[in-house]
Amino acid sequence: MKKKKNILKKLFCLVLAGVLTAALFTGCGSPAGDDSGDTKKEDGADKTAGSGDDKKITVGVNPVPHADILENVVKDVLAKDGWELEVVVFQDYVLPNTSLESGELDANYFQTLGYMNQQNEDAGLHLAAAAGVHIEPMGIYSQKYSSIEEIPDGAEIGIPNDPDNAERGLQLLVQKGFLNSIGDYGRDENYTADSLSNDKEANPHGYKITPLEAANLPLSLPDLDAAAINGNYALGADLPSNYPALEIEEFDDETAVRRTNFIVVRQGEEESEKTQALIKAVQSDEVKQYIEDTYKGSVIASFIEEE
User: Fold this and answer.
1) Partners of 141 in the β-ladder
2) Domains and CATH numbers, the chain
């Protein structure tokens, strides 16, 4: 929409070139009307050049629950204040950040602070958390058993295979009494899931710990006795409706912050008009009620304001 308006603006300038003054013509071609809509900071970060007349907010998201929350609630809340919301859905975790960095998005909404900080460091991005919205608790799911007490010694339990979520899944198993500890998992590269499976001190019930791609855990659930599954993948597979979690994560103040999904913007734009309008909408009573009514504990509101 912005590009279309800028093209029309330039055409308008060309048509009137013969009658307008040189100064007015130069004004039509000023940087503020550039099709890119952004200029580069000296430190390499992108800075959106949009003015107060731009009432459109473009946000990159993952499908569930992020897109649902924005499309079903936030869009209407923003409209009441005169804002238009465009939701751009991504299937991965990389493009929402690079698209935000390049100025194609005004914000994104899919990630935790830890992931954002890692991407800033590893990929040289310049992103900042603006406000927390929700937590997707990891849960212990099973198609074979209806309570954790039914799960027998030696059962096979799946966990995600990426480092952060693998440790998160194991800590959930500790929290719910399956394991005494995670042993040296994550601290000693020679200590594997097999090591933990055979560690009688950490794993007195002899559970077989099986790391799998996080997105594949719901598909693998029929072949496992149980699995620790991330909330977004559980929702995507409709597990909470068909096979409700036997247990879900509990959070103290520190872990709640670490597990919260944040609205993220480019550094320096945390206080912009667009960012503040978006924060107001995503942290509204309407969003909180929608989360409670729709997800019934598989998503939890976590309205954190970044300082």
Assistant:
1) 227
2) 57-136+255-301 (3.40.190.10), 139-250 (3.40.190.10)
DSSP designation for 305: B
Task: Kindly tell me the burial class for residue 26, based on how many C-beta atoms sit within 10 Å of its own C-beta (0-12, 13-18, 19 or more).
Answer: exposed
Residue 294 has pLDDT above 50, yes or no: yes
pTM for this prediction? 0.69
| Residues paired with residue 60 on neighbouring β-strands, in sequence order | 88, 108
Distance of alpha carbon 102 from the chain centroid: 18
Q: What percent of the chain is modeled with pLDDT above 90?
A: 73
Burial class (CB within 10 angstroms; exposed 0-12, middle 13-18, buried 19+) of 36: middle
| Residue type at 170 in one-letter notation | L
* 8-state DSSP, 225: S
Concatenating the DSSP letter of every residue in 119-159 gives HHHHH---EEEEEEEEE---EEE-SS-SSGGGSPTT-EEEE
Across 162-174, b (16+ Cβ under 10 Å) vs e yields eeebbbbbbbbbe
Place of tokens 């309407």: 286
Pick the range with the lowest mean pLDDT from 131-135, 148-152, 238-242, 278-282. Answer: 238-242
